[in-house]
């Protein structure tokens, strides 16, 4: 595990073995048969306890996240906060959305719907918002009576292992974590005794997950990347647009699905918009996420190389660098 701001080794992880994967699936299926019988009110209370634990550990977990993947500490604190709020939200959904009674279609009959768990849910997470996405998916699945096996990103595994201690209030085996790379995720996705997959990541991997699940008619929740257009017309308040563009492009080093990535600017306001965006880009403080900065390092050397390739290609195709365009002179190391 490499700190992306210092390039120092801060820990190590190991891939789960095939035997550990098989055991985790067996445990999840066995425990789920009991967990689904726990009433909605009790599940809700336990998830609220988990959210409370997240808030208590917020400072420590946020620091771990910044050290492991680089985002500024303020953003890490925000993410833990969003995670606890999401867990509280799904706790209440569990309490209030178990089904409904519908008006009679035929005289003398009563109609109702119920919502039942699907079984064992596999959650495959990315590095950019590993805790928030975890709670959106894990808290929802657990609240409904499912058990969960989490496969975190290799870039945020140690933080994830610490963070999921919040779910220790649940019966053992309801929430499990298996560390590792693509082989571990593949084994969990293709296992015949996992019943749903929630995946967030790249388009190519998302397609592989969808195809594997389709062969078993296994349910999926898939969100893959994004390449979002930011459109600026003459009617726009340009300073607001430029500030929004800078925020949308540089939040979490641009490592998020909803980042502002492609700019289409009307020729009537092009030059003024570029000037204002350059102004806000120049003001961004860059460095170690534990210091007073607006932007930390990229999450790993691979991501830095990918970005550098894009930048160099833009230059070769005639793009002009108005500010930045490389490692800040004050930073001798880090991604």
Q: Overview of this structure, please?
A:
The chain has 335 residues and is an alpha/beta fold. The chain has eleven helices and nine strands. The strands form three sheets. The chain has a five-stranded parallel sheet with strand order 5-4-3-6-7, sandwiched between helices. A two-stranded antiparallel sheet has the order 1-2. Helix 3 packs across helix 4, helix 3 runs antiparallel to helix 6 and helix 9 packs across helix 10. The two termini are 14 Å apart.
SSE topology sketch:
Layout: H1 18-35, H2 40-56, H3 58-69, H4 73-96, E1 99-102, E2 111-114, E3 120-124, H5 130-143, E4 147-151, H6 157-163, E5 175-177, H7 182-190, E6 196-201, H8 203-215, E7 219-224, E8 228-232, H9 238-250, E9 260-265, H10 270-283, H11 301-316
Parallel strand pairs: 3-4, 3-6, 4-5, 6-7, 8-9
Antiparallel strand pairs: 1-2
Helix pairs in contact: 2-4, 3-4, 3-6, 4-5, 9-10
Question: Summary?
Answer:
This protein has 11 helices and 9 strands. The chain has 335 residues and is an alpha/beta fold. A 5-stranded parallel β-sheet has the order 5-4-3-6-7, sandwiched between helices. A two-stranded antiparallel sheet has the order 1-2. Strands 8-9 form a two-stranded parallel ribbon.
Shape: globular
Q: How would a crystallographer describe the biggest sheet?
A: 5 strands, parallel
Compute the average pLDDT: 95
In terms of DSSP E residues, the strand content is 5-15%
Low-confidence stretches: none
Order of helices and strands: HHHHEEEHEHEHEHEEHEHH
Amino-to-carboxy terminus distance: 14 Å
Number of helices: 11
Please state how the strands of the largest beta sheet are arranged side by side: 5-4-3-6-7
Strand tally is 9
Cα-atom Rg, whole angstroms?
23 Å
Q: What share of the residues lie within helices? A: 40-55%
Structural class: alpha/beta
């Amino acid at each position: 595990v490499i700190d992306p701001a210092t390039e120092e080794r801060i820990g190590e992880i190991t891939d789960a073995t095939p035997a550990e994967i098989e055991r985790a699936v067996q445990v999840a299926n066995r425990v789920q048969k009991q967990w689904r019988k726990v009433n909605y009110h009790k599940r809700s209370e336990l998830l609220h306890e988990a959210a409370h634990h997240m808030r208590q550990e917020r400072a420590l977990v946020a620091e771990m996240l910044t050290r492991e993947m680089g985002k500024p500490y303020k953003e890490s604190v925000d993410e833990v906060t969003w995670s606890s709020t999401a867990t509280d939200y799904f706790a209440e959904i569990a309490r209030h959305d178990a089904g409904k009674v519908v008006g009679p279609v035929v005289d003398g009959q009563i109609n109702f719907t119920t919502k039942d768990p699907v079984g064992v849910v596999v959650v495959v997470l990315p590095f950019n918002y590993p805790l928030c996405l975890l709670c959106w998916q894990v808290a929802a699945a657990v609240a409904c009576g499912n058990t969960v096996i989490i496969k975190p990103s290799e870039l945020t595994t140690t933080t994830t292992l610490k963070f999921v201690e919040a779910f220790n209030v649940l019966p053992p085996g309801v929430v499990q974590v298996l560390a590792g790379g693509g082989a571990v995720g593949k084994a969990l996705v293709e296992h015949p005794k996992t019943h749903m997959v929630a995946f967030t990541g790249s388009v190519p991997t998302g397609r592989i997950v969808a195809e594997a699940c389709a062969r078993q008619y296994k349910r999926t929740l898939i969100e893959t990347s994004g390449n979002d257009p930011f459109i600026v017309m003459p009617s726009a308040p340009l300073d607001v647009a430029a500030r929004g563009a800078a925020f949308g492009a540089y939040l979490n080093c641009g490592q998020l699905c909803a980042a502002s990535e492609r700019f289409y600017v009307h020729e009537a306001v092009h030059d003024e918009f570029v000037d204002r965006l350059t102004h806000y880009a120049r003001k961004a403080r860059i460095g170690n996420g534990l210091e007073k900065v607006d932007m930390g390092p990229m999450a790993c050397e691979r991501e830095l190389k990918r970005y550098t390739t894009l930048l160099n290609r833009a230059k070769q195709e005639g793009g002009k660098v108005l500010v930045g365009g490389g490692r800040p002179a004050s930073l001798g190391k880090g991604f």
